[in-house]
Amino acid sequence: MRNPDKYWNPYVAGVAMGLVLLAAYLLVGKGLGASGPALRFATVAGEVVAPAHVAATPPLAHLAEEPSPLSNYFVFLGIGTLLGGFVAAYTAGRMKAGVTRGDTAPLGLRLGLALGGGVLLGVGARLARGCASGQALTGGALMSAGSWAFMFAIFGGGYAAAYLVRRQWR
Amino acid sequence: MTYFFPFQLPAANPQVAMLAAVFVGFGFGFVLERAGFGNSRKLAAQFYGTEMVMLKVMFTAIVTAILGTTVLAGLGLVDLRALGDTIASDTFLWPMIAGGFLIGVGIIFSGYCPGTSIVGMASGKLDAVLAYFGVVVGQVLWAEVETHGAFARFHNSSALGHVYLYDLLKVPPQALAAAIVLVAIGAFLFGEKVERMVTGAATDAPPARRWVFAGVGAAGAIGLATLILPASGAARPVPAATIAAPELARRALAEPWKLRILDVRPLADCAKERVPGAECTPLETLKKLDLAYVSPSRDLVVVSERGLPEAPADARAYGGRVLLLEKGFEGWREWALAPAPAPAPSAPEPEQQAWRLRAGIRSALTGVGAPPPPAPAAGGGAPVKRKAGGGGCSG
User: Which DSSP category does B293 fall into?
Assistant: First the structure.
């Protein structure tokens, strides 16, 4: 009965996602996001490893000053995202350890690009004050002009670089 | 905490807020996974034209949420602008375009965006773990440099505050929402055409697609209909937004450029004493300000004698937010011009801070306060009568 290759119709998934976003807006008074907790984790880790450096770096010091930097809406949202993803993957029979890549793509290339791409995502999310969910989705649906410019820039960047890395997806 | 929806959860209770965040996140993660974003190949396929899942899911989600908020706003249940001001970030145009470009490159390199990498991790994918670790590293890297020199200048450049497309295009949000529905359906049909060209397969439209298209089309039409209903604009069930005296004082000091304070009391009263920075615009002259046509970038604060149940019609024409001073000038006088006993030294810090602001404002406006005034004017503890020209009005 379960078919791991069967996903929801993308338009139906889009409506479902829009309703989740609406619930976040109207019931909680917040948006969606995923990149915010990353800096909080780094701050908490940095406080253990190099507290002096954290104190000297304003964006990190700012978070470290909070009584408990991890007690934050977006951290709990991230925990929920992890749980939701886990339940959905498990019940669809897609729970499988591994690396997703093209059938003929070298493993090292794929892992290197995953990490390098992740760094670009992190820098970009900091610059743009949000990632694809926190800025494009959340701000875009509130018709914020910057979020729409951001959204077009994402597609621009993706299409501009797609040719360079086509090997890892083939 | 700003409230803009009657059924909003109480944010004051941390347990409720935390639980709500986990629930919303659960829905987010569940839908992302079921749409296929736990699989990086599925997201990457967007940029090779084989399967435009990212376009379809993201744009449908945005359209759904826009329709939800604009229809509710059209019915007077949601304050759309307050919602945006609370939730959306300010626009920093060029950093956002640059950041968007980097994220686009990052998505095709890593196969994830930060949200989908969490779902990828939850489905056991090692590349997703590395991608999210990269996000942490990238965030720290930029946090290290964003307060220095040229990086800081760029990071904070083109700060435009809250800019909404409906303000830029000068159309009602509901009309813009309907237009976005049409653009989205056009983009979907175009995307499907590209898919057919690239893969060579003839995909037949599943019935679910027709239902979604019909649904968003109908919701867009309902949004438009709320514009035609004359009642929706005039008789809004939501009481007009208000601002309390302490908050007004704070904003008038901290960000006067974001406020425009209109004192609608009779000219003589306003000339005698008013909130610092207020313009004397008696009710009957409000029309001459043409508030419907001035830039809606600042919040309009209406100061009346004792507070108004709703904003004057001429002020309602203003495109931006209109706030009514609670209890009007009476409330201001009570808070800012009358002496207040200092809190006990053991009182909590917020209370101390509030009192310091209050005492500071009072001494600035009345001349009573820290340094004892030289004239006998301070006799007794009676409220000090000021002559015209005192305070921040014309002095």
Answer: T
The CA distances from residue B141 to A65, B136, B155, B216, B302, in Å, are 20, 9, 13, 41, 46
Tokens of B73: 């706003």
Give percent of chain B with pLDDT exceeding 70: 86
Cα dist from B125 to B33, B109, B283, whole Å:
12, 16, 65
Neighbouring CB atoms inside 10 A of A49's CB total 8
Chain B residues whose beta carbon lies within 8 Å of the beta carbon of residue A113: 109-111
Tell me which chain A residue has its CA closest to the CA of residue B90.
A146
Would you call B114 an interface residue with chain A, using a CB distance cutoff of 8 Å?
yes
B143: left (phi over 0), alpha (psi -120 to 50) or beta: alpha
H-helix or E-strand spanning residue A152: helix A145-162
Structure tokens at B287: 């029309």
Round the average pLDDT of chain A to a whole number and report it. Answer: 91
Distance from CA of B289 to the nearest CA of A (A): 27
Cα separation of B127 and A99, whole Å?
A: 6
Q: Contacts of residue B62 in chain A, CB cutoff 8 Å?
A: 18, 137, 140-141
In this structure, are strands B299-303 and B159-161 parallel, antiparallel, or unpaired? unpaired
pLDDT tens digits along B164-208: 999 899 899 999 999 999 999 999 999 999 988 888 876 666 788
Nearest CA-CA partner of B164 in B96, B91, B94, B224 = B91
Interface touch A148/B165, C-beta < 8 Å: yes
Helices (H), B306-392: 313-316, 328-332, 349-366
Q: Hey, what are B318's tokens?
A: 């203003």
For residue A123, give the amino acid letter: V
The terminus-to-terminus CA distance of chain B in angstroms comes to 35
Which B-chain residues 6-45 have CB contacts (< 8 A) with chain A?
Answer: 7-9, 11, 14, 17-18, 20-36, 38-42, 44-45
pTM of the model as a whole? 0.73
Element (H, E) at B122: helix B114-122
What 8-state DSSP symbol labels residue B48? G
